[in-house]
Design goal:
The chain folds into four domains: 2-146 and 187-238 and 329-344, no CATH class; 148-184, no CATH class; 245-323, no CATH class; 372-413, no CATH class. It has helices at residues 2-6, 8-18, 46-55, 100-114, 130-139, 151-164, 166-173, 197-205, 214-237, 245-258, 293-297, 302-310, 325-331, 407-412, and strands at 23-30, 36-44, 59-66, 74-81, 87-95, 123-125, 144-145, 262-265, 270-275, 278-283, 288-289. The chain has 413 residues and is of the alpha+beta class. A hairpin with a 2-residue loop joins strand 9 and strand 10. The strands form two sheets. A seven-stranded mixed sheet has the order 1-2-5-4-3-6-7, sandwiched between helices. It has 14 helices and eleven strands.
């Protein structure tokens, strides 16, 4: 194990040699006899750094996951969203634990690598770990630290919650909804994301690597992302549309709903859209709608598409540029350089010692603890225990369409 950690410094020098623009840093502490002891290791490859800055929105999901070896430690990660709404890993670091000092150290490096300044125009999405909250407030004080799209929807949903339980509604309002309700979020980032699912996706992506010791884990992550950049670029080059495939599919769904609305033009670019008792205002020049979906997401909502078709124009022309194929290819234009085996690494004398062994009670877990209501046969989905079914035919609660008493009448009509 000691020999393994003695290779950390040569590995760091090899990364710097193969990719001079890559940001890597090793932090050590002083052990017995004055020998350096491993504490932290940060990595941000130049290809990922430039790709994020040139082809991704300034939305960063951060999270931590445990390393599954007897030495313990955690891996902190920063993950963006590409133009096809998929994860875009930016940087990661191995640290001793998830605390104020380690998170602030990580954000200091992220700020420097991505030139984030004081965080203005940046959205950070995380869980509620207090160390992350403190680090973002310190390093990126002007960043938006982030479910209704507009305040009318928010108020209606809150009233419905109050009817069910006034105590729950009051507790919800005391929980600072400005941080996670879309009605209050900044629209300039062109994303409606409020969860750090992308970081969780990255954690699952490297789950096998996390069972290995430091250098093998770091090499597995590097090799996987090196291939990912190439494969994603090659896949997108085959796409014939101007938009990324997932965005095109999202737009097609909005097109299907556009036929349900009535258009009342006020000017060539300003109009009302009516749907039953609801009335919204859409501005084609400003690319805004009362529902706020268009300006928040950057993809025209069904209300806007109604008038776009009324004007004999194409909805694709009104999608934000961040979702276009050429911008996506700019994000994946970079690369992660290959690396020789350890026999070819620079000879760097360093008696680096492994971190102290942390032995917890019981056998280490490899699988996460599942929710009591989660269906064991369908990972990621909850059981329907306690939920009340609604008939899809007559819309009455208490039965499904197979046992609907009005089934024959509805079908005959």
């Amino acid at each position: 194990m000691t020999d393994h950690y003695r290779k950390v410094m040569p590995y760091l020098e090899a990364l710097k040699t193969s990719s001079p623009g890559t940001s890597v840093e090793l932090v050590t502490t002083v052990g017995k006899g004055g020998a350096p002891v491993f504490q932290r290791f940060f990595t941000c490859f130049e290809g990922l750094q430039k790709g994020f800055m040139e082809g991704c929105r300034k939305v960063i999901c951060v999270d931590a996951c445990f390393l599954k070896t007897f030495l313990g430690g955690q891996l902190l990660s920063a993950v963006g969203r590409d133009g096809n709404e998929q994860m875009y890993p930016i940087a990661w670091a191995v640290v001793e634990s998830e605390n104020n000092e380690s998170w602030q150290w990580f954000f200091d490096h992220i700020q420097a690598c991505l030139q984030l300044g004081d965080g203005e125009g940046v959205a950070i999405i995380s869980d509620e770990h207090q160390a992350i909250v403190n680090a973002v407030a310190t390093v990126l004080p002007k960043a938006e630290h982030r479910h209704s799209y507009n305040q009318a929807d928010y108020n209606e949903a809150l009233e419905e919650l109050g009817v069910i339980s006034e105590d729950v509604a009051n507790a919800f309002k005391a929980y600072n909804p400005q941080l996670f309700c879309r009605a209050f979020l900044d629209c300039s980032m062109r994303t409606n994301a409020i969860t750090n699912n992308m970081a969780e996706t990255f954690n699952a992506y490297i789950i096998n690597a996390r069972t290995k010791h430091l250098l093998y884990m770091m090499e597995d992550i590097r090799a996987a992302l090196m291939q990912r950049l190439v494969l994603k670029r090659q896949e997108m080059e085959k796409v014939t549309s101007a938009l990324c495939p997932r965005i095109q599919a999202m737009l097609e769904k909005e097109k299907e709903n556009a036929a349900k609305y009535d258009v009342l033009p006020s000017t060539d670019n300003l109009f009302n859209v009516n749907y039953y008792l609801d009335q919204l205002v859409v501005d084609l020049n400003a690319r805004t709608c009362t529902c706020r979906k268009w300006e928040m997401k950057g993809v025209p909502c069904c209300h806007a598409i109604t008038f776009i078709y009324f004007q004999n124009k194409e909805a694709e022309d009104f999608v934000d540029h961040v979702y276009r194929k050429d911008v996506y290819l700019a994000a994946y234009a970079g690369s992660i350089p290959p690396l020789e085996g350890d026999r070819h690494w620079p000879r760097v004398p360093c008696e680096l010692q492994p971190p102290p062994i942390k032995i917890g009670p019981g056998r280490p877990r490899k699988n996460r603890r599942r929710d009591p209501e989660q269906d064991p046969k369908k990972p990621g989905t909850l059981k329907r225990t306690g939920s009340e079914m609604t008939c899809s035919l007559c819309k009455v609660k208490g039965h499904n369409k197979r046992r609907c008493p009005n089934r024959d009448t509805i079908y005959c009509a």
